[in-house]
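In the current project phase, we have settled on a layout for protein records. A sample record is reproduced below.
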Amino acid sequence: AAAPLAAAAPAAHEAPSSTPCERTADVCVDLGAHRAWLMEDGEPAGDPVPITSGVGRHKTPTGTFRVQWKDRDHTSRESDAPMPWSVFFDHDGRALHGGSLSRGSAGCVHLDEQDAQTFYRALRPGDEVQIVA
């Protein structure tokens, strides 16, 4: 008898098949897993990227938000810290932006510089940002 066929392994370039977010999200942030995805038509547009998020009393909020505005060379008013490639998702000044992946933030979502540029270029005001714990 012939041996049963083994299931084909997914190709290395294939995106993961699911995220913890709804299909309506344009970006999905998983705080617990410390990763985020750009989404396209309800599916990940690529592999997840590493993130860090708010710590202590400055936790990153969970929920569904909309991109409010973007600023390529933003500087935080509160801490005078650079926030390159900022994509603001709430009215309290929280954003996805380039930042250190070795420490937490004051409520924002840090991406490495290259990923921050990619997210900045892909997202538009009104796009849906979902953040889950």
In short: The radius of gyration is 17 Å. The longest helix spans residues 113-122. Residues 1-16 have pLDDT under 50 and may be disordered.
